[in-house]
Design brief:
Elements: E1 13-18, H1 22-25, H2 31-41, E2 45-50, E3 54-60, H3 63-72, E4 76-78, E5 84-86, H4 106-117, E6 128-132, E7 135-139, H5 145-151, E8 157-160, H6 164-175, H7 186-193, H8 195-210, H9 212-223, H10 230-262, H11 271-276, H12 282-295, H13 299-345, H14 349-377, H15 386-416, H16 419-463, H17 476-482, H18 492-499, H19 521-531, H20 536-548
Antiparallel strand pairs: 1-3, 1-8, 2-3, 4-5, 6-7
Helix pairs in contact: 3-4, 6-20, 7-8, 8-10, 9-10, 12-13, 13-14, 13-15, 14-15, 14-16, 14-18
Length: 549
Amino acid sequence: MNGDEGEKIVFEIGVVVPKMNQKEENEIFGCVEVLVNEFMKVGLKVERVQGISDEFIKLAAPVETLGRAAAELQMKKPTSIGMDLQFEWENADAFLRQPDGSLFSWCERFQCYHHLIYGTINKSKADITLTFDGKEIQWKEKESLLHRLESEGIVKQVFPLHDEMKRNKFLKSWALNFKDYTNQPIDEIYSYFGVKIAVYFTFLGMYTRWITFPAVLGLIVQLTDFGSLQFLVQPIFFASIVLWAVLFFQFWKRKNAALLARLQINNSVSTSQEYRVLGMEWSSLQSSMGLAKNVGADKTKVKAALQRYEWLGYLMRFRNDAIIILSIICLQLPFELFYAHLYEVIKSDIVRLGLTAVYIFVIQYFTKIGGKISARLIKYEINENTEYRADSLVYKVFGLYFMQTYIGVFYHALLHRNIKTLRKLLIQRMIISQVFENLMENSLPFLKYSYKKYRAVRNKEKCGKGSTGKVQFASRVEKEYLKPSYSASICEELEDGLFDGNIPNVAANNISGPSKPCENETIIFCLCSIKAFSGSKMSSFFFVKHFWA
């Protein structure tokens, strides 16, 4: 969003503090006044906006301020000679720019912002007494002011802001552009939202185009009567779908590799990757070396210690897998069979529809709980590298989805062999699950946002009963603050576990760490496959609509 020095400054960070009265605003050592002065000292541009119930401090950083922060962070960036070197502001022209022409990527800017705003420390040799609402707060030596005010509850939230120019451009050229139904402006999405969202919508656009073949083929098989050849149709259909899935997966791997190369996202060779050739990550090797040093120079004892360490990893993985399998067998399997049996016994279609709705509602919480348990369990595993860790999480969550998707199908198909009931069941589940998904991902967040707006306006009207006129939001920053964090995933735990907080999400109302592309294309494919059940343009519409309505 920040380009060269002549480019217009864009406010990218918002800090929420309580609204002050006139007396507190005039205090020299007021917490908010000192915080604003500290922001200006580090080179940030500050704009203060008075909201209905809170005050918003909007922050922007010139490219020089970001460049010097990047140099202090010793940030590595790709250069024109193909090497990743430590960034230096004096030699900024030697480093490659982003597709939109800016010097820093989406996540690099927020990493610099995090360093700047949380680097406002007390550099004096004594504590400073700050005041807020008649209360004194001690700002200790070498303590971050923002951390201190957050712990006191004075700073309510720090969140990223949207660029109005980019917002209008995305709305016209992406979310509301229904002519190019499957095309996605990937370069713009990457520059603004980061790697994670760009890969997701790249996959979604490709998936929407490729899904045309099985959709048309399935429609033909459903509506056409093949007569005596009917017994051959279903095997051919199944074989075609399997072949389609294999081809799609291979072409997606190529497209994903081309995308990462085009966006200049690569994993430079490092010490940890050199040891990964041996099947061990650097952290694991360090632990093993520590064990070896503690034992001594005896090779036999060193070998025994390494073997114990390796077997401990196997046992922990076996324990976690056993927990997941037993949980599925003892908890989820009876629930799935009970639902399938009730659906077969009940004759009323209305009652069946209600039963399916209750089932879909409950199963979402089963999935959420199971995903959280899986994400926590892998933290206690000794995995050799990041790829093994991601695979372990996928296998655990896949078991949950497999049971939900197929146990009812197998029950009807193998026990009752009632194809008509099975067909009706699948149609009902598909329709109701889509309705629930749209309600949970779009309608419910919008209702929460509307209620927050109503409550804020109502409280303001109660406080100023004597005033006439309608209370309205004066700035868009207050609307962004009231909006809930966006979550368009039916498997948040899988997503969080795979990316492990390394890829910041502009939807989450916080400032995250640096970006790391996922190292395993298979994992991204599995993640996106679980999520890609709606059209790419419709997903982009709801995604942008939720942020910028």
